[in-house]
Amino acid sequence: MSTKLAFISDNGSHFLVRSMVSELREAGYEVDIYPTGINTRSFMDSEHSIFIVYMDGFTGSHEKFLRSIGLVVGDKKKERRLYLIGTEEDLRQAYACTEMTLVTHAFKRPVSMESVLKELRIFNPSYSYDGNVKSADETNLDVTRKTILIVDDDDIYLRTIESWFTNEYNVYTAASVTSALSLLKKIPADLILLDYEMPLLSGLDFLRILKSDPATEKIPVIFLTAKDDKDIILEILKDGPTGYLLKTTAPILLKHSIKSFFEGKKHWWKDE
């Protein structure tokens, strides 16, 4: 049975929109196109499990739609996901009127369909990533291993650092804060490795969100930063993360630090 997807756009006849819809259908999704002015109540009993909102300039109808679709996506009786596509300004305005935890992922235009399809499949139990099955179902976790969530918008670095830890830990990855928040609803995390600099919502934004929620406030967070800058380090530490590591750290030393952290060593960031 194919997954039903609602594509929300006021430019249904636009070439880019038609091209995206075509590729989604070729990928096996059953796509229906709707304008932003649609009454979202019609989705309450529908079989649509994925909603993609394509914005070509943020309008009042987008705001109205996003404020009301939250009731549909937030309905705990059904598994539903919301994705946004727009310019950086479109997305900023969209977040201003949307509960950010309801957004599974936001794509900044221009976006490739390869990245969209990849992100959609992350929550599909059959999704394969570098040869390993990645499911958000915690029953697939190896309970003898610690679970690490790595959050970074750099896809190449994300794949690389994941490969360093998969032999010893349950590893999940997210390319944005919104994806990470969605994953945390489905998996338990013993540690979050978090990029400091990310678009829209930064690593510090994510840390503050985590600390504001009793369900996530105690998850250890170690920042990963590419800049060994005193001011940046002080900015990171003032919000109370577990610590930080430099992205330039050699893989063997980075792995050693994480192992030492889990072993409860006081100076886990040092090569002891």
Description:
- By secondary structure, the chain is α/β, with parallel strands linked by helices.
- The protein contains 9 helices and 12 strands.
- It has helices spanning 15-26, 60-73, 88-96, 113-121, 155-165, 177-184, 203-211, 230-237, 251-262, and strands spanning 4-8, 30-34, 48-54, 81-86, 103-108, 128-129, 132-133, 147-151, 170-174, 191-195, 221-225, 243-246.
- The strands form 3 sheets. A 5-stranded parallel β-sheet has the order 2-1-3-4-5.
- The termini are far apart.
- Mean pLDDT is 83; it is low at 124-139.
Record keyword descriptors for this entry.
single chain; 272 residues; alpha/beta; five-stranded parallel β-sheet
How many beta strands in the DSSP annotation? Answer: 12
Compute the number of helices: 9
Q: What is the makeup of the main sheet?
A: 5 strands, parallel
Instruction: Report how far apart the termini are.
Output: 54 Å
Fraction of residues in helix: 25-40%
Q: List SSEs in N-to-C order.
A: EHEEHEHEHEEEHEHEHEHEH
> C-alpha Rg, in Å?
19 Å
Q: Beta-strand percentage?
A: 15-25%
Structural class: alpha/beta
The averaged pLDDT comes out at 83
What is the 3D form? Answer: elongated
Question: What's the arrangement of strands in the largest beta sheet?
Answer: 2-1-3-4-5
- Which segments are poorly predicted (pLDDT under 50) over 5 or more consecutive residues? 124-139
